[in-house]
Fold:
Amino acid sequence: MLNLDKEIEELEESLARLEKNINDIEFEKNQYHEGIKRAIKKQNIKQNIQLMLNVVLAKMGRIPYCSVDDFRKDMRIRQDIQVMRNQLAALSCSKAIVLKDEENYVPKEVHEPSLEKDIDIEPLKKGYIAIVVNSLDRGGLEQVVGLLAQEFYKKNIPIKVLCLDDGGLMAERLKQVGIEVLIFHGKGHAFKTYIRKNPPSLVNTHYVKRHIKFLHKEGIPIVEVVHNMYVYYCDHVAEIERENEKYYTKLIAVSEIVKETYCNRIKQSDKIAVIGNAAILREEPQKTREEVRAFLGIPQEAYVILNVGSIDPRKNQVGIITAFDIVAKLVEVPVYLVLAGNVQDEAYNNKVLDSISKCEHKTNIICLPYYERVRELYQMADVFVLDSYYEGWSISATEALYDGLPIIHSMCGSAVELVGNGMYGMVVPNPAGNLSKIRNLELIEEINRGEIHNTKELVQAIKTMISSKEYWTEKRTEIRWNMQKKYSVDYMIYCYIKLFFNIKVGD
Structure:
């Protein structure tokens, strides 16, 4: 357990000092009607602070408390402290971070790595790099592969994309910009023959299980990207991955949780580097926040919860709907839920629609199968909620942060990096409980049955975000600037090229 006693004591002292401010509000009640509103608001914030303080103290062993989730307790403690600091900042105006617009925000000086200054990419221009995939149609993995290929191509690093089975939408887009894409239609012999005649200097595989031993025997360095938490692997597939790990030169995990899960479920490996994904910054919104809300029929004063993602059991939209309906009954402000995403699983979509039909506040739930200008949704919303059972790196959560929208992220995939110990939102336990203790078949059964173990924590997180709405609204410019820099395309490409460079020329 982390030594956080000093931080806890400081927070207790801060809370005590603020007691006087709370009591002074009684005077305001006799003076102005607005004073009464502020008093109620501040009292509610104070109660939330005290509640969270009790949780943190309990985790430190100060008072009895039974935690539902024992996964990454240290990170949860730090997050609880950060949330309290956020609310204390909202209550104590002198400590609040006020960011009215882009011009008023002055970012801290940071060293930004530069390919031109830090790495000589000339060795990577000898031969070519082969990106090997099974197929290349549409999806999060496909977006990352397309991004890598295009950025390497722009930097004049020879690149080819080899599809073992099929092409698809992304494959066609890459062809249109001049990148060579070869499709082998499941013919392993043709793939091996091509590699022998045209050996690449390095192979970058993405979720590929075949031909790894062959590539190793050909003396070609292999860098595998682990895009997801392989909690759903059956024993047979997990054993294939363990065998392949022997032949990888390096592995790239897209997040710390993905790395941890790989080591726990597949194999402990010292070959793994963590490189977070980036998203492409979409075109500027054409409509304002107010116009989008009017278009969707959402009141301007409402608090809007947003989820963007395919309608799929692992995304757990049913869990979000359940928590939303509870929150809507507990808070005084009008709350709306917007679900945007294409249907990937018709049976699960029927469950989602059935859950909505049973909600008391079903008229406040809006489903958008497709919305072309998704940045308008991020701009319109107050919080982004991702409550998945498992993820790799959430592109939609990254896009939300790019637009300054705070997030609530379940404990999976990119939670640690994107939430940043409470600086950019909150983490809630995984809806399946502790994933490290669940076998793949148990997880699949739980998802299919719709068992959700984090409803209480998700409800509390949403309530906390609602009570801190003003704080997070003022913080949006800071979030936007920090996340666009921290997880930029340039930085992601820099990390990939640096790793490839070290392999080709030696550390």
